[in-house]
Structures are given as C-alpha cells and as structure tokens.
Amino acid sequence: MKLYDYFRSSAAYRVRIGLQLKGLDYTSIPVHLVRDGGEQLQPAYRAVNPLGLVPALQNGGATITQSLAILEYLDEVHPAVPLMPRDALGRARVRSLALTIGCDIHPINNLRVLRYLVKDAGLSEEAKNAWYVHWVQEGFAALEQQLAGSAALGCFCHGDTPTMADCFLVPQVFNAARFQIDMAPYPAIARIDAALRALPAFAAAHPSAQPDAE
C-alpha cells in the first residue's frame, strides 16, 4: 500500500493511526502542502487525487481518497483490530463523533481555507487565527457534550478500545495545540487524547515521527 501523506495533515494523520492500529505495512509518499505553492496542486498529484488533497491510499491498482472512506475500507479488508463497534448503534455513534470532527470542525479550518482567508479575503493573521480558534471551540464544546453525556464513554471515545472516532480526535487536538487553544473547558476530550497518545500506534503516527517531518 502507498499512502500519499503530509506529516502535518490531520486527515492523513487519521489514516496513519488506523494503519498503525491494524499493524499494516505501507509506503509513505510525502506530498508537501506548502513547498512550491503546494505539491498537492501540481499535475502529478492531481492525477492521483483531482481535488488536490491528502491523503490518498493506493492499493492493488485502486486509489481511495477521503480519510473516512480509507479507514472504512481498511476496516473491511483487514477486519482484525476493528475500528468500529460490532453493534449498529455503536457504529452510528462512532461515525457521528468522527463526522463532527471531519465535517463540522476540520473543513473550515484546513490549510486551503486559512490561505483563502488571508490571500483572497484579506484577513489579517490575527483575524485568521481568531477564525480558527472560534470554530474549534464551537466544535469542541459540542463534542465534549457528546462524549461526556454518553454512557458509552470509556477510556476512549467509545468504550475501552480505540475506534475510528479516536483516529479523528487526536489529530484535531494536535491542531488545537498548535493554535494554543485552552483545553481546560473540554476535560473529556483532553483525558481521552492523553490516554490515546500514550499508545504505541498513536505515537508512531504522530507528525514528529514521520519521514517528512520538519
């Protein structure tokens, strides 16, 4: 398997966690999102993923994009160490938590949006950072309620085994730390993140452990 990756991409980080949890071997192909205007926007990578985003996973001649789709694919073809609960309600809850991050928090704060806010919309760096912090705080407040208010909460997002929701959570908290967001209002999120980062699979997937880390 080949993973088109960028060490600081939270979406790629999710997939690296899933691969590490499952103990799957893969080759990392770095795609630098900043150098030369963004390697993801160049024709060579557009031929892999026309949207020009990472990650993309190639396996057996097929290319899969979108982190959620990649993780679900990996779970189906490599069912050992499942990323989803067995029961339908549990799977729905894990997807809901993952999508709260993947659809409602991350997309309006990713690199291409932040670039647009500064270069095209004319926002200052301070205003851009305030945008980022506002939407992460909004999303984390809702996510904290989802987590803390559920009997399904365990050591991790859903019970005591890492799931797809945890694959999404840790990269988003990593990004929040980069923007110096205070995690005190989100004790459940902070506790789960700390417990997950202590696991070998999560440590191996950390941005600082990647071959293209700067």
What does this structure look like?
The protein is of the alpha+beta class and 214 residues long. It folds into two domains: 2-81, Glutaredoxin; 88-202, Up-down Bundle (Glutathione S-transferase Yfyf (Class Pi), Chain A, domain 2). It has helices spanning 10-22, 43-46, 67-77, 88-105, 111-119, 125-148, 164-178, 187-197, 200-205, and strands spanning 2-5, 27-30, 56-59, 62-65. It has a four-stranded mixed sheet with strand order 2-1-3-4, covered by helices on one side. A hairpin with a 2-residue loop joins strand 3 (56-59) and strand 4 (62-65). Helix 4 runs antiparallel to helix 6, helix 4 packs parallel to helix 7 (164-178) and helix 7 (164-178) packs across helix 8. The longest helix has 24 residues, at 125-148.
Topology of this protein?
Layout: E1 2-5, H1 10-22, E2 27-30, H2 43-46, E3 56-59, E4 62-65, H3 67-77, H4 88-105, H5 111-119, H6 125-148, H7 164-178, H8 187-197, H9 200-205
Parallel strand pairs: 1-2
Antiparallel strand pairs: 1-3, 3-4
Helix pairs in contact: 1-3, 1-7, 4-6, 4-7, 7-8
